[in-house]
């Protein structure tokens, strides 16, 4: 299945892309997605080590075991909220 | 090894240097003050009593001690007209401002606020405060009103009151350029723009193109005194107690800060970083908080397209400020939202142009964006119409917003009404107040719709100057930190649910205290532990810097007590203005209207649970159930006031 991923600041800097698509096994979970991203983008993996992303599927915040569906739109956001 | 070199200074000039013993250096930090009476032309210079320095350090804390003293000198502070000559305008540098301590650039401006009617206090970075200290003074207390437009020149420990002929009427950048031309390129100025001259209640004091002492209308107070500018020139480096120790601390702390991810990211894209995060969540103030998300066109990488350089303040290691290609600096996240999504404008270039406009005119972007959006919603709802506004006020109409901002600054037409900020409510139907996003009559400062994170809501409800995030925001709520880490920061295990109501008094009180201490020291939020990262400078690092810079020794606990004392003093000032527990509240919309979309959908503030948060907060602060400072604490602060 295909998943569309949007990387927020600063994650996208280590990939060079704001948006990318990934093919995963059916019924993959969010943690499967993060593993796949880490394997494909080692610099992004370092970013995740430093600050684990908040993961949104559509408008909902997802957990590591949330199931992804084909065509899911995933947004990986840096956890910060100052002002 | 013991022994002390006793050192005292007025400004930078040593007046006494006596070697008492050989080996240890101890510095008496005297914090020179000038009391300037613009009505009489009298200028008195003195130093700050040691007891006051120990109790408040400098910056915001000492400003509060002096503000309370001068407001009470008139009897009942409620009789002090915020725009009258009796209102003191106090400009105080932080204790470490101008030293090589990391990000020690800041100063506070304090007075009775003409915007809120209560405690007014604005904090600002840039280069002015360091220059003021180097020119001889840590603090100015400005009284009275000049007969004609004037400005102050501070030079080598002396102050002159000069005519502002040719300056009055200029915008902020032009005024600063003229002053450089008059007094030399090395001068640094704090000025008001046309909005301050016209006593617009949300006028700030500007230094550089964007740095603003923005909150509470301090620029209007300056304008009411016929004071266009304060210029600092000359002087020498600020003496410190242990130069090599401070240098070593600077290098060590700088290294640590540069390793903090948030510092790296702020240095690359500035605070617009925060827009996408809050927008994804559904926590962006949009169309006066009727909506909670907006367009992606205000994301950081869109702003970056208009930026050609990142700039810094005195001794900064972060470099968070954009120089934009449209003729100004910024925007910050706050301005991006307040003059973008909050008024329905999505075009990045238009928002940056509005950012530059408010800066040139000397307006507080937060209040301006909030008040304009309020008026737009009143128009949308038919509570006001063309007969009052002079024409349509439609969301996203750049030209209308631009001209309205100019009209506010020059007090023209409907702009003259909005120039009254929250006090414009008297021109509108009573229900207009239901749509005003303000607390204690101060418009909310930041872009975050606080209905989701309950600690954020409590924070703006209790902030001493009114709705403001920089007094106490518990930003670590977002990180989902492990219990043991949270306990280490806040002193005990606390509920990790950021959307719940429990333990929020604890974390807001923590923010209150450490941010107040940072303000007393003149340090920036972006290096202060708890603001966006748990890895920044905390009480121990602050103690080390104070000791090396001034010779004053604190423990983390005694330093936190400075923060508590500052909060207590502010509470007492507001009590003099008649504020009670009932004033620690939120905009009606935050209680009554659930957030409409995205992850935050359905969240609002439950009134009963809010009162529970207040109870807990007062207990954490050591205040009584009505939010009053206990008599013993008041007696201690009253005794200190005797020293002012």
What does this structure look like?
The complex is a heterodimer of chains A (about 80) and B (about 650). Helices cover about 25% and strands about 30% of the residues of chain A. Chain A has two helices and five strands, in the order ββααβββ. In chain A, strands 2-1-5-3-4 form a five-stranded mixed beta sheet, with helices on one face. In chain A, helix 1 crosses helix 2 (about 40-50). Chain A starts with a strand and ends in a 6-residue tail after the last strand. The mean pLDDT of chain A is about 95. By secondary structure, chain B is of the alpha+beta class. Chain B has four domains: about 1-30, no CATH class; about 30-235, Aldehyde ferredoxin oxidoreductase, N-terminal domain (Aldehyde Ferredoxin Oxidoreductase,  A, domain 1, 4-Layer Sandwich); about 270-440, Aldehyde Ferredoxin Oxidoreductase Protein, subunit A, domain 2 (Orthogonal Bundle), CATH 1.10.569; about 455-640, Orthogonal Bundle (Aldehyde Ferredoxin Oxidoreductase Protein, subunit A, domain 3). Chain B has a six-stranded mixed beta sheet with strand order 5-4-9-6-7-8, sandwiched between helices. In chain B, strands 11-10-15-12 form a four-stranded mixed beta sheet. The interface of A and B includes residues 77 and 81 of A.
């Amino acid at each position: 299945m295909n998943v569309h991923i949007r990387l927020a600041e600063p994650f996208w800097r280590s990939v060079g892309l704001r948006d990318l698509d990934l093919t995963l096994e059916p019924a993959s979970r969010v943690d499967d997605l993060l593993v796949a991203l880490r394997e494909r983008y080692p610099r992004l993996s370092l970013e995740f080590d430093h600050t684990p992303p908040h993961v949104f599927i559509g408008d909902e915040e997802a957990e590591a075991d949330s199931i992804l569906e084909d065509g899911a739109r995933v947004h990986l956001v840096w956890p910060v909220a100052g002002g | 090894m013991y022994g002390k070199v006793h050192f005292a200074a007025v400004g930078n000039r040593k007046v006494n240097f006596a070697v008492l013993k050989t080996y240890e250096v101890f510095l008496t930090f005297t914090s020179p003050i000038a009391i300037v009476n613009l009505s009489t032309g009298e200028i008195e210079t003195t130093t700050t009593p040691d007891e006051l320095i120990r109790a408040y350090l400098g910056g915001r804390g000492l400003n509060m001690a002096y503000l309370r003293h001068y407001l009470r000198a008139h009897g009942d502070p409620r009789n002090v007209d915020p725009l009258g000559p009796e209102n003191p305008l106090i400009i105080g540098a932080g204790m470490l401002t101008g030293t090589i301590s990391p990000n020690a650039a800041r100063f506070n401006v304090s007075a009775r606020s003409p915007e809120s009617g209560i405690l007014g206090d604005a904090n600002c970075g840039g280069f002015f405060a360091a220059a003021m200290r180097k020119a001889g003074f840590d603090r100015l207390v400005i009284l009275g009103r000049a007969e004609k437009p004037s400005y102050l020149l501070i030079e080598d420990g002396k102050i002159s009151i000069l005519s502002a002929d040719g300056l009055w009427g200029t915008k902020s950048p032009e005024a600063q350029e003229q002053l450089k031309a008059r007094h030399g390129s090395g001068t640094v100025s704090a000025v008001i723009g046309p909005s301050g001259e016209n006593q617009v209640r949300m006028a700030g004091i500007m230094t550089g193109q964007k740095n603003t002492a923005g909150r509470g209308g301090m620029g209007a107070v300056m304008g009411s005194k016929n004071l266009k500018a304060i210029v600092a020139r000359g002087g020498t480096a600020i003496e410190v107690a242990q130069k090599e120790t401070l240098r070593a601390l600077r290098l060590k702390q700088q290294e640590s800060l540069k390793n903090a991810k948030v510092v790296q990211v702020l240095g690359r894209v500035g605070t617009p970083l925060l827009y996408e995060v809050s927008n994804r969540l559904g926590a962006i103030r949009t169309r006066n908080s009727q909506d909670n998300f907006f367009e992606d066109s205000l994301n950081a990488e869109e702003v970056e397209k208009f930026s050609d350089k990142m700039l810094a303040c005195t001794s900064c290691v972060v470099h968070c400020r954009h120089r934009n290609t449209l003729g100004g600096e910024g925007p910050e996240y706050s301005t991006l939202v307040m003059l973008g999504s909050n008024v329905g404008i999505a075009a990045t270039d238009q928002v940056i142009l509005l950012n530059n406009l408010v800066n040139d005119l000397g307006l507080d972007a937060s209040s301006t964006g909030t008040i304009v959006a309020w008026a737009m919603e009143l128009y949308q709802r038919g509570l006001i119409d063309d007969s009052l506004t002079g024409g349509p006020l439609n969301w996203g109409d750049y030209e209308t917003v631009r001209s309205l901002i100019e009209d506010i600054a020059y007090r023209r037409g409907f702009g003259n009404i909005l120039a009254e900020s929250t006090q414009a409510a008297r021109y509108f139907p009573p229900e207009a107040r239901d749509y005003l996003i303000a607390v204690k009559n101060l418009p909310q400062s930041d872009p975050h719709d606080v209905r989701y994170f309950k600690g954020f809501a409590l924070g703006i409800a209790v902030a001493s100057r009114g709705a403001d995030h920089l007094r106490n925001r518990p930003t670590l709520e977002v990180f989902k930190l492990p219990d043991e880490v949270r306990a280490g920061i806040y002193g005990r295990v606390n509920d990790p649910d950021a959307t719940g109501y429990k333990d929020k008094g604890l974390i807001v009180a923590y923010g209150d205290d450490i941010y107040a201490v940072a303000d007393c020291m003149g340090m920036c939020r972006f290096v202060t532990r708890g603001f966006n990262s748990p890895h920044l400078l905390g009480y121990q690092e602050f103690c080390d810097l104070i000791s090396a810079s001034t010779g004053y020794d604190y423990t983390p606990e005694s330093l936190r007590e400075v923060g508590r004392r500052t909060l207590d003093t502010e509470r007492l000032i507001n009590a003099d203005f008649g504020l009670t527990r009932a004033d620690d509240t939120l905009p009606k919309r935050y209680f009554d209207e659930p957030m409409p979309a995205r992850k935050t959908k359905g969240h609002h503030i439950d009134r009963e649970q809010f009162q529970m948060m207040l109870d807990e907060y007062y207990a954490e602060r050591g205040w009584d159930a009505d939010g009053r400072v206990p008599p013993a604490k008041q007696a201690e602060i009253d005794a200190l006031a005797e020293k002012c």
